[in-house]
Amino acid sequence: MTIPTEPIGSIPRPAELIGALSEFAAGRLGQAELDAVTERALADTLTRFEHTGSPVVTDGEQTKSSFATYPLDGATSLGSDGAVIPFADGHSRQLPVLTGGPFRYASFAEKYFQEAGRHTALPVKQAVIAPSALSLLYPSDGLADYPREQFIADLVDQSEADIRRCLDAGAASVQLDFTEGRLSLKLDPSRGLLRSFVDLNNQVLDRFSAQERERIGVHTCPGGDQDSTHSLDVDYAELLPDLFGLHAGRFYLQLASEPDRRRVLQIIREHAPAGAQVFVGVIDPIDPRVETPEEVRDRVLEAAEFIPADRLGTCDDCGFSPFADDTSTSRDTAFAKIAARVEGTALARAVLGV
Ligand SMILES: [Zn+2]
Fold it and tell me: Cobalamin-independent methionine synthase MetE C-terminal/archaeal domain location, by residue (predicted)?
């Protein structure tokens, strides 16, 4: 089958799970009770994913605290006042800050992959956080007994292990979430920060063979939280040439919500590495309206004018709730949009004869 189609990762959590997570955090719910709620949410998510016809599924990130912070679940040596991510609607998210070394992941993404696999026979994709995002945990004024160079060396080791464990466990693909790429251009229009992010991520990617990298992808987007973005106003043209310098075999690119898709597709055609698979976003998770399969088909056909069909794939622009408590999109809407993506991609395949 050509023109593969994949989700990005997150599905809105059921109200029961969000409630149970906050009760557990407050010490009012036991581990066994939380586990039972989690199990129900996972089973329902995988069942509904299968009903969309999606050839590749995820665990919907039902038990991830967020796309970026899961490695810190259970970690110590963290303070609360780290880097702030401001969104266009005025709300913000704040990362923790490291207060001491050595830096180690307290949780690895492989556990989510394994849990999903107990609920489905379909291929499962696993998203991991890009090391460049976690590099923001290191305090700007340094740590006395833990120099930044040592932190970066530890981070590269840990990120490699996070990816490798998913690959070795049999993940259909492993996707590095790199939402801070586009955001970095707001903080540093000279692209210096972006290039340092690309270099850091390549330090990790270069530890994998070319064959392994065929299953490793990078996701870029302007952020998606509470139906708002953090960097949609940053010109994609400023990001894409450097983004395609990442040594990944796949790119999962937000595209549906771009005001001028053809201009972006032109840049993709000029700069995407020759051997890479390019998944373009044909669903906008922030738009509450569910796209029709015909709309999706037309977006795929438009992309196929610029990207050869044997290198083209489709995806959603972003996850549907990268942060666990985001309920701005309903589960029904998320799954309806995924079903439209799957059906619309199949319609495009029929037109293209591939
Ligand atoms: Zn995203």
Answer: 4-321
